[in-house]
Specification:
4-stranded antiparallel sheet, Gamma-B Crystallin, domain 1, 125 residues, 2 domains, 3-stranded antiparallel sheet, alpha+beta, 2 helices
């Protein structure tokens, strides 16, 4: 196991399993390193398809320049675990509509509800 960095904390149970099953796989090691870097960076958000954190959900530590058809203009509630996030009406971070801080947003404002097409973390917390 030479060449593998050992971290003092565990990101998720899935990461433990990945490390145990594929510790020798270069791609698995890189995935774990990137996930740890993102967690240390301090940006994590979960977006939901329905108000009050219902419906389909998606958690990420990365911003998305183009959300894609599954969540484009369908985000209705948001939980920000860490970081300061900006949300935009258009792809490629165009037309900013909200800046949100860590917290739970069960109902978005009319300017954001069902209108978000891209988002990104602008500062870790």
């Amino acid at each position: 196991m030479s060449g593998i960095n050992i971290y003092k904390f565990v990101v998720t149970p899935a990461v433990i399993g990945l490390c145990l099953l594929g510790a020798q796989a270069a791609s698995a090691r890189e995935w774990v390193r990137q996930d740890v870097k993102d967690m240390v960076k301090g940006c994590r958000v979960t977006v939901y398809e329905e108000p009050d954190f219902k419906g389909a959900r998606w958690s990420t530590t990365n911003g998305w320049e183009v959300i894609g058809w599954e969540f484009n203009d369908k985000i209705r509630s948001i939980k920000i675990q860490s970081g300061i996030w900006q949300f935009y009406r258009n792809d490629h971070f165009q037309t900013q509509i909200e800046t949100l801080y860590p917290g739970h947003y069960g109902h978005l404002t009319p300017t954001a509800d069902n209108l978000i097409s891209s988002f990104r973390c602008v500062r870790s917390t």
